[in-house]
Design a protein that fits this description.
single chain; 578 residues; mainly beta; Immunoglobulin-like; 6-stranded mixed sheet; 5 helices; 36% strand; globular; copper ion binding; apoplast; Cu-oxidase_C
């Protein structure tokens, strides 16, 4: 009997010791987690680009804004003071914001804007995310210049799942208007036409050698021969998917949207606005100066786009100096054609999670959302100057034939939390109201969506699948669809109309990539899955800002769970009022 008791006691004692060690490890991990305090002052700053000085909205006078560096598990406390003339909010793109939806930032979704002269402090913790995210304004078109990198290093005491790079460099791709971006979108809203395209692309805020008055400030990235460096590439552009390449060098892709991926090699990457890609680059070429170059991937047939090329320079420290008075141009890479959908598709379909993942297989909510453009007929009594879209119409966009309208007196989260009636309805359709040949020749009767503020309600813990189906209404194009408050698995993507009978066989249920922004292929579809484990109101929208302006968005209302840890936190005392 005594021996029997001893055999019981040993496992119990082992369990007890294991439990104490686990608690100790957690305590150590929590003790190492830091709180980072930052001040963001939104202000007008003179910025000179393309020979002209413009009064530009910036953070702390910097363009791009400051890079924030944290470790997985750390907390950020960012006080934003608005000294500009416009309303503003800041969105922490890709941060899960577990139970802290009040800190997510989209205007009139989770908060009212910070008025000129006002302030608001964003408080949130990074939980289980490592890699590259970014932050940007989420109010009108301010994010054209109000953006910066958010670098999340591994937890203290842990390392990357790849050899530690010698150095790390954020590469922020942007778009520059030789005008006030707010004026550009206001004019388009007034006329109903498409807004003017940008005048330049930028790398870390600089257009580079191929633009007027720009070569003296071209971004230079220094390398030593033989070393491997990490480039954290972010598409912070407003309205354009972009190809990125470095002459004579290859990339090893190791992460995207703050999730590690199975490494793969490529000579070119494609990012939609909002997306991030972490790549290793080895300096294994003869010491010289090599251009990094970026140009548009423009999938909408016949639509105008900025057809310029931005460059930065990858410069080997041992690169020979040219003789006095001799100018040697860096080597320029050959970029894909602007409409090279095959290269874009090869790249986006190469992503896999670093290891086998736990994909929800039982589905509670099986949703099918069309995403695309539309044209509204000119309203009765409106002047022709306000209907300058194709054939006297006004551009619009929708999901499931609902063009999303932002409220103006309350944020959706506030209305939900306080039970304020009349701000939104919860009848967003789970499937298109009318089935049609989505990527074919669409009847004109389907080109005009309804305008409304409709949400879709999800129970806490619901397992959700969404088919995101592009349409060919007016023109088909690649749409970067971003979901706030969540990462999701991309199971598959394809062209044409999604066919549940045959396309489900293409689902990757083993190691699909975890992303926060999915590139829905031109005239095609993507299928995503996630578990609704984060209560709040979360907008899902196209990250081409012209499309969100036109209403290509919807929002999920995720209900609280049972326990306090499954419930939305109370709003902060300094939450702005409308």
């Amino acid at each position: 009997m005594q021996a029997f008791n001893m055999s019981i006691a040993n496992p119990l004692r082992s369990l007890l010791i294991y439990g104490i060690l686990l608690l100790f490890a957690n305590a150590v991990s929590l003790a190492k987690a830091k709180i980072h305090n930052h001040d963001f002052v939104i202000q007008a700053t003179p910025v000179k680009r393309l020979c002209n000085t413009r009064s530009t909205i910036t953070v702390n006078g910097q363009f791009p804004g400051p890079t924030l560096e944290v470790n997985n598990g750390d907390t950020l406390v960012v006080k934003v003071v608005n000294k500009a003339q416009y309303n503003v909010t800041i969105h922490w793109h890709g941060v899960r914001q577990m139970r802290t939806a009040w800190a997510d930032g989209p205007e009139f979704i989770t908060q009212c804007p910070i008025r000129p002269g006002g302030s608001y402090t964003y408080r949130f913790t990074i939980q289980g995310q490592e890699g590259t995210l970014w932050w940007h304004a989420h109010s009108s078109w301010l994010r054209a210049t109000v953006y910066g990198a958010l670098v999340i290093h591994p937890k203290e005491g842990t390392s990357y799942p790849f050899p530690k790079p010698k150095r790390e460099t954020p590469i922020l791709l942007g778009e520059w208007w030789d005008a006030n971006p707010i004026d550009v979108i206001r004019q388009a809203t007034r006329t109903g036409a498409a807004p003017n395209v940008s005048d330049a692309y930028t790398i870390n805020g600089q257009p580079g050698d191929l633009y007027k008055c720009s070569s003296q400030d071209t971004t230079i990235v220094h390398v030593d021969s033989g070393e491997t460096n990490l480039l954290r590439v972010i598409n912070a552009g407003l309205n354009q998917q972009l190809f990125f390449k470095v002459a004579n060098h290859k990339f090893t892709v190791v992460g995207a949207d703050a999730s590690y991926v199975k490494p793969f090699t490529t000579s070119v990457i494609m990012l939609g606005p909002g997306q991030t890609t972490d790549v290793l680059i080895t300096a294994n070429q003869p010491p010289a100066r090599y251009y990094m170059a970026v140009r548009a991937y423009a999938s909408a047939q016949g639509a105008p786009f900025d057809n310029t090329t931005t460059t930065a320079i990858l410069e080997y420290k041992a690169a020979p100096c040219p003789a006095k008075g001799v100018k040697i141009n860096p080597i320029l890479p050959s970029l894909p054609a602007f409409n090279d959908t095959a290269t874009a598709t090869t790249f986006t379909s190469s992503f896999r999670s670093a290891r086998k993942v736990d994909v929800p297989t039982e589905i509670d909510e099986n949703l099918f959302f069309t995403v695309g453009l539309g044209l509204n007929n000119c309203p009765a009594g409106a002047s022709s100057s306000s209907c300058q879209g194709p054939n006297g119409t006004r551009f619009t966009a929708s999901m499931n034939n609902v063009s999303f309208v932002l409220p103006s007196n309350f944020s959706l989260l506030q209305a939900h939390h306080q039970g304020i009636p009349g701000v939104f309805s919860t009848d967003f359709p789970a499937v298109p109201p009318v089935k049609f040949d989505y990527t074919g020749n669409v009847s004109r009767s389907l080109w005009q969506p309804i305008s409304a503020t409709k949400l879709y309600k999800l129970k806490y813990g619901a397992r959700v699948q969404i088919v995101l189906q592009g349409t060919s209404i007016f023109t088909a194009e690649n749409h970067p669809i971003h979901l706030h408050g969540y990462d999701f698995y991309i199971l598959a993507e394809g062209f044409g109309n999604f066919n549940p009978q045959t396309d489900t066989a293409k689902f990757n249920l083993v190691d699909p990539p975890l992303r926060n922004t999915a590139s829905v292929p031109v005239n095609g579809w993507s299928v995503i899955r996630f578990v609704a484990d984060n209560p709040g109101v979360w907008i899902m929208h196209c990250h081409l800002d012209v499309h969100i302006t036109w209403g290509l968005a919807m929002a999920f209302l995720v209900q609280n769970g049972v326990t306090q840890l499954e419930a939305l936190e109370e709003p902060p005392v300094d939450l702005p009022v409308c």
